[in-house]
Design brief:
The complex is a heterodimer of chains A (about 270) and B (about 375).
Chain A (H helix, E strand, L loop, with lengths): L2 E12 L2 E12 L3 E5 L6 H8 L7 E6 L4 H4 L3 E4 L13 H6 L3 H4 L7 H13 L15 H13 L5 E5 L7 H16 L3 E5 L6 H4 L2 E6 L1 E7 H4 L2 H8 L21 H9 L8
Parallel strand pairs in A: 3-7, 3-8, 5-6, 6-7
Antiparallel strand pairs in A: 1-2, 1-4, 8-9
Chain B lengths: L1 H8 L1 H26 L3 H22 L4 H25 L4 H25 L10 H4 L7 H20 L1 H9 L1 H6 L4 H17 L2 H4 L4 H15 L3 H25 L5 H19 L5 H28 L9 E2 H7 L6 H10 L3 E3 L4 E4 L1 H13 L8
Antiparallel strand pairs in B: 1-3, 2-3
Helix pairs in contact in B: 1-2, 2-7, 2-10, 2-12, 2-13, 3-4, 3-5, 3-10, 3-12, 4-5, 4-10, 7-10, 12-13, 12-14, 13-14, 15-17, 15-18
Classes of the chains: A alpha/beta (about 270), B mainly alpha (about 375).
Chain lengths: ~270, ~375
């Protein structure tokens, strides 16, 4: 089994404060991997570092054994939904077509074939009838699906997704996970920043437990243990400069309930 | 309407109007991107920062040729932008503070230089101060040709890098992830913004030039949900405001051009904010009012339906006062009943009693079916 993504000794710092400290990680090809950890653990930063969006202080990142720059086309990115202005004057189809801009080339406009591809991706996420919709009219779940469709048209081999389940209803969550499984059966690798600990064993093959440092990573069955979760969320993690906003150290009550309370945040489904 | 007649007959005025149209178009089009990228105030900083550039260009060359002064303005405007970025990236000072700081530092320095130039025993210095509030009447054919060539360059840049600039404005991180050189595109688009600002300085002036960046774009956003249309419309609004303001100011006893153009563009903004379909305040208020009225009306209809379901017939009449007691706020029942009557949903049986019609009963069943949780139906 070869590695889709390999991270070696990655350290990222904002000013003097390290956000990621000496991360080593191997994402095997063809798996669904979750990145979990408390707020401020550096989950988003890790994804952005892999994509070259933040500059590491040290370390090396390889996509299929080569640098990101040379493998760019094989990597798809789904940013956090809240990272853009949804009142931007454009429609759904146009946003999805942006996924193809990288390969259209300079000085050229997307053509009919590109729009057909975009429409096809919209069908896959069940949004084909919203193609002409102005993006400000979308619900949170629909925005998320549009971002997924934009990543799908990239036809990448590795997908990095930043909280694709954030603020979506149960129906959309099921649709998204079905899509991720489809990607996996096509041999793609998907890395997802995830917040709902309860669904990790059901949804994912591999998991990375992250809190500035890598606490554990590997097959869910091996590393998604109470002991490791306590190390990630609970007791002092052995790093003095733990970021502000880390959950309290005190460990009260049985673990599953506490974790459930930390993680679950879903909108109630409408009708 | 002499101004309108002059516009077609007077040669000078035509030159002025053409110049104003060109500057309005380019600042409007580039302004659309600035507004969408939440950089409205950057335009203000750039135009103010241009003033010392104009003064220094004159001091160094002794020339008042617009091309020379515009070049000085562009370099200073650019420098100001770079300093704002440098301050934001290397210190804890926030973007808005850095912006305000550079704006006042550069503008203050420019005013000092301007005063210094004016104090010199040199007849040639006259007229530099028109760069403060702008003077369209000073435009000559050669100036307009210069403006037109530079503006054409800026607009061509937007057309050529259209999809790149769109991604840069909407989702720069994603743009970087698909391999766009986002930083260079950012520098490119900002350069085009600087260009579109400096070609307007002679006509509009450094103090109010930012209005030509922000206002046409804000107005255009009201009318459309597509980026392409917004950029074109914004350019058009800029041109119309430019021509109107420039023509008025040169035709009427020395009105300063910049302020006159700003008044014109503000009128366009006001109309757009109020009257644009969808986003306009008038229509959205009207829609909200209609929706509220419909909801109150339906509430009375459903009350009547609820009462009637306790009898054999859906069209069983009930006293208005019973409905009154059920409704909140009190007292509007009669008005709502009349509205329902107008639509054929209810009928008056006698002085106080009302009943659903067959159509009204159907509508009530439909509403109850569509939104069972919203209505207290039996």
């Amino acid at each position: 089994m070869s590695a889709a993504v390999e991270v070696r000794d990655l350290t990222v710092a904002y000013r003097e404060r390290p956000v990621l400290w000496d991360i080593d990680l191997i994402v095997p090809e063809g798996v669904l991997m979750a990145i979990v950890g408390p707020n401020g653990a550096g989950k988003t930063t890790l994804i952005k570092a892999v994509l070259g969006l933040v500059k590491p202080a040290a370390g090396e990142i390889l996509i299929y054994g080569k640098s990101f720059a040379s493998q760019q086309r094989r990597v798809g990115y789904v940013p956090q939904r809240g990272s853009v202005d949804w009142d931007f004057p454009t429609n759904v189809l146009d946003v999805v077509t942006m996924g193809l801009y990288g390969r259209i080339g300079w000085f050229r406009r997307p053509g009919r074939a590109d729009r057909t591809k975009a429409l096809h991706a919209l069908e896959k996420v069940g949004m084909a009838d919203h193609a002409d919709r102005q993006i400000s009219q979308l619900s949170g779940g629909q925005q998320q699906r549009v971002f997924l469709a934009r990543a799908l048209v990239q036809d990448a081999d590795v997908y990095l997704m930043d909280e694709p389940f954030q603020g979506v209803d149960a129906t959309t969550e099921r649709a998204i996970i079905a899509l991720l499984r489809e990607l996996r059966s096509d041999g793609k690798t998907v890395v997802v920043v995830h917040h709902d600990l309860q669904t990790v064993p059901e949804y994912f093959d591999e998991v990375l437990l992250l809190n500035v440092r890598r606490l554990a990573s590997g097959p869910v069955g091996d590393v998604f243990t109470e002991e490791n979760l306590r190390k990630t969320y609970g007791g002092r993690v052995g790093f003095v400069g733990a970021p502000a906003g880390s959950p309290p150290i005190a460990n009260r009550g049985p673990l599953p309930e506490r974790l459930g309370g930390v993680s679950r945040s879903r909108e109630p489904s409408r009708n | 309407m002499d101004v309108l007649i002059d516009l077609f007959s007077d040669y000078t005025l035509r030159v002025v109007a053409l110049g104003a149209a060109i500057l309005g178009m380019s600042s409007g089009a580039l302004g659309a991107f600035a507004v969408l990228r939440r950089q409205s105030l950057l335009g203000d900083a750039i135009s103010h920062a241009a003033l010392p550039g104009i003064a220094l260009a004159f001091l160094l060359t002794g020339s008042k040729a617009p091309l020379v002064l515009v070049l000085g303005a562009a370099i200073a405007g650019w420098l100001g932008t770079l300093l704002i970025l440098a301050v934001t990236e290397t210190s804890r000072i926030k973007y808005d503070s850095a912006l305000g700081m550079m704006l006042s530092v550069f503008f203050g320095f420019g005013l000092v230089l301007l005063t210094f130039i004016q104090k010199r025993p040199d007849a040639n210095q006259a007229g530099l101060d028109t760069y403060l509030f702008g003077q369209a009447a000073s435009l000559r054919v050669s100036d307009v040709i210069t403006m037109a060539s530079i503006a054409a360059l800026a607009l061509a840049g937007v057309a050529v890098f259209w999809k790149e600039f769109k991604v840069l404005s909407f989702d720069p991180d994603f743009g970087r992830s698909i391999g766009f050189p986002i930083r260079r595109l950012d520098i490119g688009l900002t350069t085009l913004l600087v260009i579109s600002i400096v070609i307007g300085l002679q006509t509009v002036g450094v103090v109010l030039m930012s209005a030509m960046i922000i206002s046409p774009a804000a107005a255009a956003r009201q009318w459309t949900d597509r980026l392409g249309r917004m950029v074109i419309l914004s350019g058009l609004f800029g041109a119309v405001a430019g021509v109107t303001g420039a023509a008025l100011s040169s035709a009427k006893a020395n009105l300063p051009t910049g302020p006159t153009i700003v008044v014109a563009v503000s009128a366009i903004v006001a109309v757009s904010l109020l009257l644009a379909p969808n986003r306009g305040m008038v229509w959205s208020r009207l829609r909200a009012w209609r929706a509220g009225r419909r909801l109150r009306m339906d509430a009375v209809l459903m009350d009547l339906f609820l009462l009637a379901t306790q009898h054999d017939s859906a069209e069983y009449p009930h006293d208005r006062r019973v409905l009154d007691a059920m409704s909140f706020p009190r007292g509007a029942t009669t008005r709502n009943l009349r509205l329902l009557e107008d639509r054929g949903y209810v009928q008056r049986i006698d002085a106080t009693r009302w009943a659903l019609t067959a159509v009204g009963a159907d509508r009530a069943r439909m509403l109850a079916h569509e939104n069972p949780s919203e209505w207290r139906t039996a």
